Amino acid sequence: MALESGKRVRVDTSVARSFAVVGWTPHLLELSGGTVLVADGVHGTDPDDPNALRRIRRAFQRQADDAGLGSGRSSRALSAVQGLDELLTLGSSELTVLTLSGHDVKLAVRLQSPRSKDHAWRHSLAARDRRLDAGESASIAISVTRSHVFASDDDALTLCGALSGVPPGTEPETSFTGW
Fold first, then answer.
1. What domain of life is recorded for the organism (predicted)?
2. Spatial separation of the C-alpha atoms in residues 106 and 59, rounded to whole Å
3. pLDDT under 50: residue ranges of the chain
4. 3-state secondary structure string, the chain?
5. Residue 22's pLDDT is what?
6. Per residue in 68-77, pLDDT tens?
């Protein structure tokens, strides 16, 4: 069920979280050809790096603690924590963090900028009226400038397609410089 040979799949926070919280990390690995690619910010290269997946894990752990042991809510939250732990403890050969290049950083900063001109620019690309977090903007920037299949379930595909000129769900060009 993996993609055709040679295709590399990079997932954003929402996809990684969705697979992990239901215990489907092995399926995500299979679909990704054995290596899950994520942008820096979705996961970090160092255990102390702030990142979206660890923040989500902490939120589920708090939810479990607050719900009280034995409750259905606590059980579901603990199951999500276990699934996220499975993903977060994969070795670097199975979970690879992609760092941003200089061009990637410029685009990522603009994608999350609060300046009105950047908000208007994002809106002109059909983005919703919300600011992106660091993991989302890094995922989009890397997708626009690199040759990976990008898996997302939200606004990121819209922005990626608009920036690369490639419809969502297809592989973007590798040399985009138009932003």
1. Bacteria
2. 30
3. 1-2, 168-169, 171-179
4. CCCCCCCCEEECHHHHHHHHHCCCHHHHHHHCCCCEEEEECCECCCCCCCCHHHHHHHHHHHHHHHHCCCCHHHHHHHHHHHHHHHHHCCCCCCEEEECCCHHHHHHHHHHHCCCHHHHHHHHHCCCCCCCCCHHHHHHHHHHHHCCCEEECCCHHHHHHHHHHCCCCCCCCCCCCCCC
5. 96
6. 888 999 999 9
58: Cβ contacts below 8 Å, ≥ 6 apart: none
> What is the residue whose two structure tokens read 């299949």?
149
pLDDT tens, residue by residue, 31-64: 888 999 999 989 987 778 888 999 999 999 999 9
pLDDT at res. 173:
38
Single-letter amino acid, residue 45:
T
Cα distances (angstroms) measured from residue 140 to each of 22, 70, 80, 151: 25, 40, 26, 10
